[in-house]
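job 3f2a | input accepted
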Amino acid sequence: MTPARRTLCALAGGTMLAAGACGGDVRPVPVPPGITYAAHEVHEGLVIDRTPGGSTSIATPTRGRSWTEAATVLNGGEDGGAELHTTSPARVDVTGARAGGGGRVEPTWENNAIRLTIRPAAGPLIQSDVFHRVDHGAGPSELTRLAQDSIDVRGAYLATLRDPDGRPVGWMGVIVGEDQPGHAAYQAVFPPNVDAALAAAATQALGSEVAWIESHVHNVYRSPENSP
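job 3f2a | predicted structure (228 res):
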């Protein structure tokens, strides 16, 4: 098992998801060493527990909509004031980032499983693999639009990040909550040319894909006696 997979599986135990489920709590949660970026969803938006620069931030919707839709603004951190604009599912543009920063995130799909292309304002693009399941859930082996039920979507997923030559330069993962739909935690190791605003944009892109999938599956919940 790779270090990234071990880390994501350990976090899937519930610590970060429990923090994300507390809708009124926007405090950052502790982040294990070695992870350069971490965030979790709350009712108000997205709490960024660690930015690539080592600070914390909050992404707040600008017009009362879900943080995965329309636009959010970063509050705090090295890119405070930057805006993230979701122009279509999993496609996010960054405006107002610090000089020379920002960029955009674009999606593609391989047999209905998403890949993200991260395009920094400076430096080479980063292409993700598809997001493979790394827990022992019974759903599809990838984060996919072919999921049938909400339970199928729950679990931990990990994608390697690659440079234009296909060399690994990091990873990005998401844990979709077991108890409540719409709550997720995100972790990543991004290369140096991904700044705080672009890292948040990648999270917003992936979060919008999870939201799209969850809005198109049947809502099924484990009864208490069947819950782990």
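job 3f2a | The radius of gyration is 16 Å.
job 3f2a | closed
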